[in-house]
């Protein structure tokens, strides 16, 4: 049986077993699925192709008996000459005195080690007697702990494969193996440890990558299905005609991407299940317009709607654009921390007796005193800025309301289908037509005068600029000092010709608000700011975004900041001031100047930073795949997702016998149980 303890295998003593346990190998099955983390490929190359300092493999005939010298306490050096392609090569082996007995003049030997092209010398890390053709080219390398050596583990796996290999049963239905040309499980396990060729190894890895991804996606899909079906009774029967009328009054036509997302959301609203959907779209792609239509649809179904955003400024902007779009059609209120006392009480009463249709607000709207008459539709903007608990509180203010999360931080598809596998995702991947791409430049700090000068000229033309000030790591107090200094510098530079404003996180809400209003009204032309300006602010007349220390931001954040400009019909500019030290930093700046599409950027960011860094290690919630790599194997991830979707939709796990092994596997998985508790 595969679940027998690994100590059943010959030669596994207590100490060895302990070390194996540290490596999470308890059963024979654990051992069989403990795959090497890499393979050393020993490939013999002609001497002329060997590169100095590389790890190489050569084959030759030993010319004379090796000589052994000892030095230090326990150290030894074994040297011998061998003849390779009629050239004399020197071999050096450290601390392997025992090898002297095995290596004899006249023998053919294969050596792997570091090549010194100047001295024609190899420092041996691995040797095999005999010519290279006689031995496996590809050597597994396992990650190890304690007493376990690579050699011992390899031998043990060999035994396990021989004695237990035929008990490994297939879990994937034949259909998939056939369609994707995957080797069967038994064969693939053996190949993962002892590949006969690189091609065979590639297919074995493909097989386990698919298996892992499929299991993961199945778990996510099942979770989503269970979550969905555990909610009932919120089918919103909206008035299609009225909704069409509402859209017809917009001063623009929806883009195809907006239309598609809208249809997906409305379909969810009509369904008896609770919607749990993420709407992704670049800044300015028109998410708010879509959100407005859905809110309106909810109203025609007799429900109330709520929109929660992370900052007051953003709340006010949403309030303005929504009141404009809705006109007389709805009673909309703005509920933020600044609404206090009697006004707040009046507002909460009106929300509770349904004289208010839509509430837009910050955290203020999830306080205890706010209760809705009939909250049917909830939108959370920039959802990653809220905690799980805050989102839950808002949701619980209604009876199973449909929930739409919105984000302007483009999440790479690869991550989205993995991290948000239990959510539905709509994507607006198209900009309204007529937008001009923001021209992006990368500059060094010594060109700053020229940049200030350029800003001055644009301001003369009636345009405006943001300058995001330098960052200091220690504290944001010092960042504020930087902002203040830069502000004074600019006031001096521009004298009376330009009005400069200053914004940072220590200002009161009223002060920030006042400055933003002055900027929006073009009373201030150049706004110096810390990154508080990042989210959602909309001043179409601003055409220049200067970002100091751009190398310190992630690509997605830079893209967010850049999204503050290019919102009107004038040509806009983004200037990144950066002096990155490493290659990756330079590459990132280059990508910024070349890529305007937020999704492409986020894919690049993901490749450069890796998935852990992308979300921040702690809260990533991303699975650790053993064989598959989310980034490189993203096609397989998508294929697996589609297959999982079909399996769950058609209920194949329950109804089709060939899925039985997969079902058993899932039933034994603790993941689902944990997530559902
Ligand atoms: P987002 O919320 O995704 O950042 P918004 O919904 O705020 O984007 O839209 C940005 C700007 O584009 C707004 O001024 C909005 O009126 C306008 N807009 C939205 N959709 C369209 C469209 N289909 N065609 C033209 N302009 C649009
Ligand atoms: Mg918006």
From TrEMBL:
CDD domains given for it? DEXHc_RecG, RecG_wedge_OBF, SF2_C_RecG
Reaction catalyzed: Couples ATP hydrolysis with the unwinding of duplex DNA by translocating in the 3'-5' direction; ATP + H2O = ADP + phosphate + H(+)
Quote the EC number. Answer: 5.6.2.4
Q: Which UniProt keywords apply?
A: ATP-binding, DNA damage, DNA recombination, DNA repair, DNA-binding, Helicase, Hydrolase, Isomerase, Nucleotide-binding
| SUPFAM superfamilies named in the record | Nucleic acid-binding proteins, P-loop containing nucleoside triphosphate hydrolases
Indicate the enzyme's highest-level EC class. Answer: isomerase
Q: Which GO terms describe its molecular function?
A: DNA helicase activity; hydrolase activity
- Helicase C-terminal domain location, by residue? 447-607
- Where do the Helicase ATP-binding domain residues begin and end? 268-428
Record-stated family: Belongs to the helicase family. RecG subfamily.
Q: What does this protein do?
A: Plays a critical role in recombination and DNA repair. Helps process Holliday junction intermediates to mature products by catalyzing branch migration. Has replication fork regression activity, unwinds stalled or blocked replication forks to make a HJ that can be resolved. Has a DNA unwinding activity characteristic of a DNA helicase with 3'-5' polarity.
The protein in question is named ATP-dependent DNA helicase RecG
Native source species: Virgibacillus kekensis
Query: Lineage of the native species?
Result: Bacteria, Bacillati, Bacillota, Bacilli, Bacillales
């Amino acid at each position: 049986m595969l679940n027998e303890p690994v100590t059943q295998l010959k030669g596994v003593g207590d100490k060895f077993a302990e070390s194996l346990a540290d490596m999470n190998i308890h059963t024979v099955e654990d051992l069989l699925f403990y795959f090497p983390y890499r393979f050393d490929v020993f490939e013999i190359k002609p001497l002329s192709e060997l590169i100095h300092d590389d790890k190489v493999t050569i084959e030759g005939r030993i010319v004379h008996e090796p000589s052994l010298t000892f030095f230090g306490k326990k150290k030894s050096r074994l040297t011998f000459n061998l003849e390779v392609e009629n050239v004399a090569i020197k071999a050096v082996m450290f601390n392997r005195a025992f090898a002297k007995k095995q290596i004899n003049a006249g023998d053919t030997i294969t050596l792997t080690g570091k090549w010194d092209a100047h001295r024609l010398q190899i420092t041996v890390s691995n040797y095999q007697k005999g010519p290279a053709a006689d031995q496996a080219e590809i050597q597994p390398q396992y990650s190890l702990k304690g007493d376990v050596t690579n050699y011992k583990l390899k031998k043990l796996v060999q035994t396990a494969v021989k004695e237990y290999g035929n008990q490994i049963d297939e879990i994937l239905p034949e259909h998939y193996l056939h369609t994707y040309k995957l080797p069967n499980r038994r064969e693939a396990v053996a190949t993962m440890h002892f590949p006969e060729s690189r091609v065979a190894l590639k297919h074995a890895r493909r097989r386990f990558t698919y298996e892992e991804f499929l299991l993961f996606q199945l778990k996510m899909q099942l979770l989503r299905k269970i979550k969905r079906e555990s909610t009932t009774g919120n089918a919103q029967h909206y008035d299609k005609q009225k909704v069409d009328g509402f859209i017809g009054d917009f001063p623009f036509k929806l883009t195809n991407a907006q239309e598609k997302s809208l249809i997906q959301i409305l379909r969810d609203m009509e369904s008896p299940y609770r919607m749990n959907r993420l709407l992704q779209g670049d800044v300015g792609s028109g998410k708010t317009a879509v959100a407005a239509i859905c809110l309106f649809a909810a109203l025609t179904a007799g429900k109330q709607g709520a929109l929660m955003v992370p900052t007051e400024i953003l709340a006010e902007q949403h309030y303005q654009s929504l009141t404009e779009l809705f006109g007389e059609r709805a009673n909309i209120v703005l509920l933020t921390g600044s609404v206090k006392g009697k006004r707040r009480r009046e507002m909460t009463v009106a929300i509770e007796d349904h004289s208010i249709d839509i509430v837009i607000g910050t955290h203020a709207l999830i306080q205890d005193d706010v209760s809705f008459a009939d909250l049917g539709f909830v939108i959370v903007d920039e959802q990653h800025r809220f905690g799980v608990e805050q989102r839950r509180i808002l949701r619980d203010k209604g009876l199973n309301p449909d929930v739409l999360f919105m984000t302007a931080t483009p999440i790479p598809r690869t991550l989205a289908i993995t991290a948000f596998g239990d959510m539905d995702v709509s994507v607006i991947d198209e900009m309204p037509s007529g937008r001009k791409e923001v021209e992006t430049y990368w500059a060094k700090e010594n060109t700053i005068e020229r940049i200030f000068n350029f800003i001055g000229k644009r301001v003369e033309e009636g345009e405006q600029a943001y300058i995001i000030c330098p960052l200091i790591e220690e504290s944001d107090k010092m960042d504020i000092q930087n902002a203040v200094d830069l502000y004074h510098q600019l006031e001096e530079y521009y004298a009376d010709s330009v009005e400069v404003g200053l914004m940072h996180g220590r200002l009161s809400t009223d002060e920030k608000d006042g400055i933003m209003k002055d900027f929006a009204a073009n009373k201030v032309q150049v706004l110096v700011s810390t990154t508080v300006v990042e989210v959602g602010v909309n001043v179409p007349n601003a055409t220049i975004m200067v970002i100091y220390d751009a190398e310190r931001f992630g690509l997605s954040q830079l893209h967010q900041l850049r999204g503050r400009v290019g919102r009107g019909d004038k040509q806009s500019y983004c200037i990144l001031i950066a002096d990155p030290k490493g290659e990756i930093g330079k590459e990132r700046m280059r990508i910024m100047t070349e890529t305007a599409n937020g999704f492409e950027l986020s894919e690049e960011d993901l490749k450069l930073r890796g998935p852990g860094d992308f979300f921040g290690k702690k809260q990533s919630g991303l699975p650790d795949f053993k064989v598959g790599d989310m980034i490189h194997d993203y096609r397989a991830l998508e294929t697996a997702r589609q297959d999982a979707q079909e399996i769950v939709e058609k209920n194949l796990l329950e109804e089709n016998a060939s899925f039985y092994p997969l079902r058993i596997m899932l039933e034994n998985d603790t993941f689902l149980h944990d997530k559902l508790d």
